[in-house]
């Protein structure tokens, strides 16, 4: 029996943000600047390089958290695809530890970054902007990661390639969950570079001798050669 791919997930961390770079030494940040920093010039270059590297992959769908740094990263990749692609905003993909008092940005601001932004169908949008408590427990984060995986597995079963742009801490939870490890009792961590790519391949059960879930790569940075 030939292996049958049901879904390929590309888990991508955002490019370097002003926060990753230390905020330029500033101490007078607004809440938005501190919690939702934009990409640095280096971060934009990383996103562009990822877009060029994957320009012929022809993703079936793009998803991003509702934060500025992920939206810009996803946009730079999506705009280099063979044909025009929508970018679905999914608040559940936001980073761990976002303070409750930060209410995010309106979708129109995200559309200034990429006009083809829209909310993902069926996701949790009673609150249209992400509001995850900074006291979110490890168990809650793990449950959020599981909800994202379940969402993708339910919607894509015919060999689709789906790019998800999110954040280091949250993606670590997703990766460890897919590995079958309990993030609430960590035995190791995953160091994810800015725009590092982890590819997860889900096969139709029983068709792949190496298992139904296979990691094609973890934290791949091959596109850095284009920088």
- What's the multimeric state? single chain
Spans of 5+ residues with little confidence (pLDDT < 50)?
none
CATH topology: Rossmann fold
How large a portion of the residues is in β-strands, by DSSP E?
A: 15-25%
Shape: globular
Regarding CATH, which class?
Answer: Alpha Beta
Number of domains: 1
In DSSP terms (H or I, runs of 4 or more residues), the helix count works out at: 6
Termini Cα gap? 41 Å
Corresponding CATH superfamily:
Phosphoglycerate mutase-like
Helix percent reads: 25-40%
Return the average pLDDT rounded to an integer: 92
List the secondary-structure elements in sequence, H or E.
EHHEHEHEHEHEE
How is the largest sheet built, in terms of strand order?
4-3-2-5-1-6-7
- Rg of Cα set: 17 Å
- CATH architecture descriptor text: 3-Layer(aba) Sandwich
The largest sheet is: 7 strands, mixed
- Annotation, overall tally of beta strands: 7
Which class do the helix and strand fractions yield? alpha/beta
